[in-house]
Amino acid sequence: METQASSVALRLGAQVVFRGRQPLSQILASSEAGLGYVLRRVSLRNGSAELRHEICDGEGGRLYTNPRMWPLIVDRFSEPLVRAVRGPPGEPPLGTVVDAMAGLGGTALRLADTCGPACRLVAVEVSSPLACLMEHGMQRLAGHGEVWSEAASRVEVVQADAQDFLAAWAAGNGAGAELPDVVYLNPCLDVTRPSKEDLLLHKLACLKPVGREMFEAAVACAQRRVVLRHPKGMKLPFGLKDSTVQRIGGGRSEFIVVDSAKQLLKYVTPGLKILM
């Protein structure tokens, strides 16, 4: 674990810290990046303990991919996101799903779990620090021998611009011979009311909304459908129409399901150039 921590910290320009009683702000005073890769032992209710890995900035910001941070979806068939990605009952199992804006990997882990052991989950993240945290976090999760471990072992982390990655895959230069069945697009974070932890995430993330070219690349790549997370009640983007897409509600957001590139060609607005 110490070797892994040192490797990640080196990539992030952070200082490795074994958390004790000294204030973190004092420890990080000598860090050029102002970041610390903090290792701390946490006691659990069952009497056991685990070593937590966190990136901290000394000002209340923390980022981590640790056990129990993302409870798995229990009622998986009623969850709106799962219904949107898995598709209707009776459809063949999914072979590959791409989470194209994966962040720290929480959604990727849940989708890997709910889509079943035969599903390959490719998690794409443009921010090098976040991709680094996610990659090593999934490796740790996979080695825990817990309920989330099998799913974590099937999450492949790719540090890349999602638009370029999807376009290359659609052109035959991507992450496998077979195109993915589903591409999931989750736009940038809500920056209107960030928490202290979110402020650090915003510093390290690339806060970029889903644009037309990104959507086109996803459509060209997905064999079955593109799923787009979208604010509930807002006008559909990219010339999409309610008569030709499915809306699946979920709290303040909803999931827009576009079935396939061939169907999409029938109803997009003029000027939308599908990359095929």
From TrEMBL:
SUPFAM superfamilies: S-adenosyl-L-methionine-dependent methyltransferases. GO terms for molecular function: rRNA (guanine-N2-)-methyltransferase activity. InterPro entries: 16SrRNA_methylTrfase_J, SAM-dependent_MTases_sf. It holds the Pfam family SAM_MT. This is Trimethylguanosine synthase. It comes from Polarella glacialis (Dinoflagellate).
